[in-house]
Specification:
Layout lengths: L8 E10 L11 E3 L2 E4 L5 E5 L11 E4 L8 E11 L2 E11 L18 H4 L3 E11 L2 H5 L2 E7 L3 E7 L12 E8 L2 E6 L2 E7 L13 E7 L3 E14 L1 H7 L1
Antiparallel strand pairs: 1-15, 2-5, 3-4, 4-15, 5-14, 6-11, 6-15, 7-8, 7-14, 8-9, 9-10, 11-12, 12-13
Length: about 240
């Protein structure tokens, strides 16, 4: 676990934990698009159900149904099995006017990317293990974007090896605390974005998180945990 104190927070309260070991663990999750989900190694394995030749129609998003607060640390384990492809974590996802992400008044979403960055929702989204296009395979980066819109706000080198060299699951983490958005791989910081609340619109608050995969990637996920973050002692003293 990362050292919370250096980011102005103390050890947060764990408010959600899911091992992602079986169908029962995701029985209330919401899948947008088509995917094959299995648990052959006691981890959630996702792969496309439609041919990658179908382009964006073959991609999908799996949403956790819980709503989480604005200040959170999200952690999960990731293991790439087969390339090419790309992974994204959406967080702080909600309707553009504050609606619940699954409000029936919002435009239906079926996995095509434009519905998530130029549709009816706001979200931050970190893309990692980007092995889809030729330039992504040649130079590995992790990107943070903010939507509505397609605003690239931060970028860092991707330390995760290619699938054929991946030895074990990698622990990924997103810290969102006030203006900070930070991404970690095995507790190593990959990038930091300080959202001023003006350049790309107001800071995003609480909302849902979702896993997105691009065909034909096969990857596994485990041990999803979410912590609610609180102000560190020094910061609380300064406000009192």
């Amino acid at each position: 676990m990362i050292n919370w104190n250096q980011y102005g927070v103390k050890n947060g309260e764990c408010i959600y934990k899911n091992s992602l070991k079986s169908d029962q663990d995701i029985r209330e999750f919401v899948l947008e698009g088509s995917a094959k989900i299995s648990f052959p190694e006691g981890r959630m394995r996702m792969e496309n159900a439609m041919s990658a030749d179908q382009g964006q129609k073959a991609n999908y998003v799996l949403w956790c149904p819980e709503d989480f607060p604005s200040d959170v640390y999200i952690q999960w384990k990731f293991w790439p099995i087969k390339e090419p492809g790309l992974c994204i974590l959406f967080f702080s996802a909600a309707g553009r006017n504050g609606e619940d992400l699954f409000d029936p008044s919002l435009q239906a979403r079926t996995g095509e990317y434009n519905l998530y960055h130029h549709g009816d929702i706001n979200a931050y989204h970190v893309s990692y293990f980007r092995r889809k296009e030729a330039d992504e395979r040649a130079f590995h980066t992790c990107n943070l974007r903010k939507s509505y819109g397609f605003h690239l706000t931060a970028q860092g080198g991707d330390p995760i090896p290619d699938a054929d060299e991946a030895a074990s699951p990698y622990t990924l983490g997103v810290l969102k605390y006030r203006e900070q958005v930070r991404f970690f791989v095995n507790d190593m910081e990959v990038f930091c974005y300080l959202d001023d609340g003006r350049t790309y619109g107001p800071r995003l608050g609480g909302g849902k998180i979702g896993f997105r995969q691009l065909a034909p990637l096969v990857a596994e996920y485990a041990d999803l945990e979410v912590y609610a973050l609180h102000a560190g002692e020094d910061e609380k003293d300064a406000r009192d």
